[in-house]
Amino acid sequence: QVQLVESGGGLVQAGGSLRLSCAASGRTFSSLSMGWFRQAPGKEREFVAGISWTGGSTYYADSVKGRFTISRDNAKNTVYLRMNGLKPEDTAVYYCAAVQGSSSYYRVYAYPGRYDYWGQGTQVTVSS
Predict the structure, then answer these.
(1) Mean per-residue pLDDT of the chain
(2) Are 79 and 22 spatial neighbours (Cβ–Cβ below 8 Å)?
(3) Burial of 124 from C-beta contacts in 10 A (0-12 / 13-18 / 19+)
């Protein structure tokens, strides 16, 4: 089992920045590929960013490319999502997710159903 706990959400003005953190426990963090997803009211959960278990590959949704950065610190068992240039449309609950790392992660990173473990979510609200 893997436990994931997100933090760092909050209220920010458009153009501002936030850094989300997701602390993992229960399994060797360095063996997990990690993703960030978000869900706005009335919408489906959507992929935001992913990072492979090696940290060598990162993936982003087109809507956040160039503004958001995913990273990981294996020594701290934590994955981060740095969000710059926030827009009102970024408002959502942000979820951290984990899946056992494999060479096929590049095929599945964007699909919520491919992740085995989820955090409880953290709210991000961007005011205009």
Answers:
(1) 96
(2) yes
(3) buried
Look up residue 90 and give its DSSP letter.
G
Tokens (6 digits) for 77: 């068992």
Q: Are 8 and 18 in contact (CB under 8 A)?
A: yes
Strand partners, 50: 35, 59
| Count of Cβ atoms closer than 10 Å to residue 55 Cβ | 16
Name every residue whose Cβ is closer than 8 Å to that of residue 4 and which is 6 or more positions away in sequence: 22, 23, 24, 96, 97, 98, 117, 118, 119
Eight-state DSSP code of residue 49: E
- Token representation of residue 83: 């969000």
Coil, strand, or helix at residue 30?
helix
pLDDT digits (tens, 9 = 90+) for 54-80: 999 999 999 999 999 999 999 999 999
Question: Strands, E, within the chain: which ranges?
Answer: 3-7, 10-13, 18-25, 32-39, 46-51, 58-60, 68-73, 78-83, 92-100, 117-118, 122-127
